[in-house]
Amino acid sequence: MRPTSRCVALIALIVAANAQSVEELKGESVESASTSTGSSQEEEPKEAWMRAPSGGVAVRSGEDALLTCVVLGAKGKPVLWRRASDRQLLTAGGVRVTRDDRVRVLHDDSEEPLQGPGIAKGGDVWALVIKSVKASDAGLYMCELNTEPPVRSFHRLTVISRGLTPPENTNVTDSYSANLPTLSPLALAHNYTDCCIAANVSKACLGFCSIQTILEGTGQDPETCQPDFPSIVKCMADGRNHVPCCVQERVPDICQDVCRGEFTPVTDNIKTHYSCAAYMEKTLACIVEGIELLPSPPEDVEVETLNEKQLNVSWNPPIENTDTVTEYIVNVTALRSFDAHLIDPSESSMKNTSVKMSQPVTHRLPANKTFLVLNDLLPFTMYEITVTSYNVHGSSLPSYAIRSLTLTPGKMKTTKVSPAPKLPDVRACCVNAGVNHFGCVDKLCDPTKTFEIGLQVTDLMICAPWAGTTFGCLVNGMDHSPCCRARGLPESCLPLCSGNVTNLDFNHFKCLRYMSSYTNCLLRGYGVLPGPPTRLHLTNIDTDYAVVHWSQPAALPDTVQYYNLHYKAVAVGDDYRVLEKIHSPFILEDLESNSDYEIYVEAVNEHGVGDASPRLIFRTQSQALEQEEEQATYYNVTACCERVAVAGVCMPLCSYDAKMSDLRALAPLCAQEFHKLLRCGAGGRNHEACCARRGVPANCRGVCAGAYTGGINTCVPYIGNIVQCFEEGTGLLPGPPREVHAIVSTTGDKATGFLDWSAPEDGANATSYVVHWQRVGNNSQPYYYNTLQLDNQINTTDSMANIENLEVNATYHVFVVAVNEHGTSLPSSMLLINITSNTQEQSVSGIPSPPHSLSVSSHSATWLTLTWQPPQFSHPDEKISYTLYYKSPTQLGQGNVTMVNTTVPGHTLEKLTPNTQYVCWVKAHAAAGESLPSETLLAWTDPAYPAYVEPPTVNPVNLVVEGSSMTILCIAMGTPTPTISLYISGHLIRQVETRHMVTVIHNVTRDMDQISCYADNGYGTPMQASRKINISHVPTIQASGITMAAAGDSVILECRVEALPKPTIAFWRDPNGRTPVIDGPNYTIQLLSDPEEQTKYTMRLIIKKIADTDEGDYFCHAENAFGKTLRPVSVRLRPSTPHHNVTECCIQMNVSSACVDACSFHLDMDNIMDRPECMNDFDKLMKCAADGSDHRSCCASWGVPRNCLELCRGGTVARSCALQHARRALACFRDSGARLPGPPRSLKAHTAPTPHSVLLSWEPPAKNPQTVYLYRVFWRAYGAKVPEKLDTSETSVVLTGLQDDVRYECVVKAANEAGTSSLSQSIMFTTAGQETGAAAAPVAAGGAATAVGVAVACLLVAAILAAAALYYRHRKNLRLKAQGGVAFENPSYLREPAPIPDTTITNGSVPNGNANAGNGVVNGNGVSMSTAWRQETLQNPTTATQREVDPTLYEELKLGQDGAGFKRLKP
What we know:
This protein has 1467 residues and is α+β, with helices and mostly antiparallel strands. The protein is built from 31 helices and 76 strands. A 6-stranded mixed sheet has the order 2-10-9-4-5-6, covered by helices on one side. Strand 21 and strand 22 form a beta hairpin. The radius of gyration is 54 Å and the shape is flat. The N terminus and C terminus are likely disordered.
């Protein structure tokens, strides 16, 4: 074999597929209504035509296919694309007609010319696009122009499976690459896909139908293709015999089935689980080489029976490598010779039978001869014949085997069939009787076509007028009623059989289903059909076949062309199975053993099928009896397992036909029983030679000798190889000798040993024995399990032997093995002979060899687990037990040795002392005696260490999904083994004493995020390690409900989302139609993360200047990898109300009549500025224009200085402020005046039922009362500078902690989402109630210079507070909305700090009389009291001189966040 590389790319398949498509397309014709000839390419064609496609399109599965159709001269007529197989319309023009959305048309209507001959413009090209093609898309497609006649072109699409295409990376090499043969590309591209398809290999497994793809990787899972491997391997071998090459490459015989084109499917039987992976590349290399060199089998092999002694064999030369064939070999095997007495005596004079099976006979023929006449054969004997092709390189596999029977003596093959009698001339009878309808004459007057009437009811209706004539002619003057009645025709149809039909009606329609039986009765009555075959009988009934015989029918025997055999299994109740066109004798094969069958035969001539022969019932022989006879002499492995007391649960493994599923299931339970199973499986025989031949590696061959080793797990892939050797060896290898014993006698300084033993009881007989002996000394080689040879040997054919010249005062080991031509047995026992000088004569019996390989398999501080190997020399069915001895060297005295009895080769010593040395050894016990001690083992227990636990490991890593499962691993260290406890979110889940605890938690919830592993072993301090995990879950959404807004407002719709991982969001208008809200000029979409909780987010939709079209429902949509959620949120426009009537207010405020005309629904600023006399009423006009609302936020956002903000709520300011900022203030009045609330009304104080308290109440404002969600109450002791304050959503509140002898003053303001009102009228009260007519304390006027003096400092502090307010609004606005049910859509309002909910007010009262921001009080309705609103004042509306003044910079900084920016009252 020549070396090569595996890096050759598999291009041949694609090239071949494309070449085939091209060849097929060369034969395709292009239909056209007329063909334009002689015109140039640039001219517009006079008639429509299409360019023939240049070739087919081949694409890989999953890619997009593009089929191009060029149509010239379409002249506006539509172009259609169809699937040619079923003519299904796919597209019409540019419109997709089919429901398959993968299909579409590419077409350019432009008039620009395109490159290429014959294409006038872009509109001439119509391309069919099929997205993500599948295998079912392959085939012919038709491009059609809707003309008369239509113009068509055909386009072939080939879809190539990805398993058949070369892999992306072909630079894969391995250690075998250098040894592969150098092969031609044709050999490497050996592609047998067509053969696989013909053998019904599934499409998913076609990747294995190419040598190249197998070498480079098919990408398919071999497990799923196991059912197809027999067909794939047969196609791969391609009929060539690759076994000689595989033998040369040292492929084991068990792995040579693939070299023969066979495949042993992997079943649950343990014998099918053998490993050939190491030889697969060598096997493939042999196959690749053989495909190129070897011939294929001969074709069309036929065998023809000439007479009782001759068969003619013929064949055709092989298809592959025909020219290299040098000869053919015909193999002839006589399978069985049939008993002559079972044959008709008139047919045979044979008196005796020959052997049942003969040796094959081969005939060699030269390559130019393709037939052979076999002579001198036995009469009535079945022969199996195969033909094989040979050349100088090797041979093909034999052709399919053909079985044939020679004839009985005196019988020659019939070569001529006589013609059957002619049918009566029914057609002439009908024509003469006046039937003139051609269809009726053709069908009702031809007895061979009457069965066709059953296909058409209309035929019977049309021919009804001539029914009496036609059916009368058909019966030909005879009454066929008895036959029809016997065939099951109903009584209403019998007149058709007698010819007595006058007319046809619907009652005769039921007869149509019986027309086939009616026709058969006519032909039978005419006497043109053969009779039933006679003398039906069987011979040579076996377990799976029988030979059926019959004789010719009595009627018309010479007209019979062939016979039909019908048979069925009686017990199953199936329908008859039919074997057509056969002759007697016939071998009926593929039968079930010990089953009843029913058969009959029919004769057939040119007119039809004759009557059936009588039925015959027979039973096949029982295969179970044959198997029992064969197995009687075999070794009984199950009985061995019972004798050595294998556990009952493990008995299913004690069989050479054990199931692999049982081995997997019982392995943990039967680990201690494996040594018994192996001993019984080996049966005391040495199977190492077989295992070596079948590819078992050297390190596993000890198992073949029944030796259980700790590394047996590495030998599991070869378990099928080993079990097959076990089963094969039971019939070939000798069993072990039994009852070995010796008598030793001493004479002087020499001794002689007389050995005697019993021959093996089961299995193959031993032909000789080998006695091994060796003196044991201090320098002797240590004993190992595979030491099956000693220094001295004696060969003998008797069951006894003498060992002479043994030395005195010495010890000898002796054992005996049985031998035959196939191999040896194992020793059944060992003799230990101790010769002393005073020994005259002693008898020694065989004992088991000592246990060996004593070792510590695991250990801890308080226990040791010891394991050892069973004795190598013991009888397989000998029951063995063990005694384990151990002691500590610190314990003196022989009595301190502890003994433990066990039946398994292993034991755990418990309750030991930490960090202590122990001495251990083992003895084996059998019925013959006690073995010598094993080697001595010194073992230490571990020191004690406190428990240490690692943080828990969770799988899947970072992908725990709510509702799924997670696996938690707790690993703890420490000696002795600690007890591990698993806690999840503080709850104890599991507690086990181990070092590695794996726990699977099902149905995980999102609160299981804290996982802790706790370990304690009683030494030191227990330890705990924890881990917090993220539990992924489907998004959940909390929507803000319905938001009210006025037209033109900026509205914010928010949804609270909780999800992991981070979701993608969208806002939809229509969840069904999926109409999205697009982020643009009018809409802003935001996703804000909660800085404290990673899984929580805020979805925000900002609608700028809301209009009528924006009103309605919106849907918050959040989606991540685990699901999606949709929740509605709505916005509604409140009815617009007209602005406050400024004229009425001006009249009430006594504005001069000359300036009243400047008052309207909006104050006319230009009218005021033009008339200086109106400047005196300017404060009154601004107060009326403010309409009781606080517009300072609006003004501040437009840059109005702080000392002028009083103007924006109708207060008195310096004239400079009025001149500079009045227009901006009026603009704010117009923009937000209709949305802001008015001041609360009718503020009153009442006596409270509790001491030191007062009840305040008021009425909602007259302006926008329905929008108010919050009231802010200010009060202070009369004359105090700093007011107290609280927030409430109710129209009353109880103030507590007041002093009875102190007067208090109070005001209230209202707030909605747009902003706040101005202050209400102030009142004076005590704990006894409101003081009638009392006014608030006056506020002394201050110069404007004071405010201007600190303006710069105030602006600096205001900027700082504005930034803090923006952050505070971002953190808390959603919480406030959730509590009060109000949406904060107005950005100007959000500039004011939101409340912080901390402490709850009970029943609306403020405890301790302290409502300042530091306490963070919340009223009973959940509205928080927090930092006071900026720039508030206690103002007496009736006193024009009262006003707020700016605090000093020191005061603002001293008050901090709770008080910064607040006005103070200046007395």
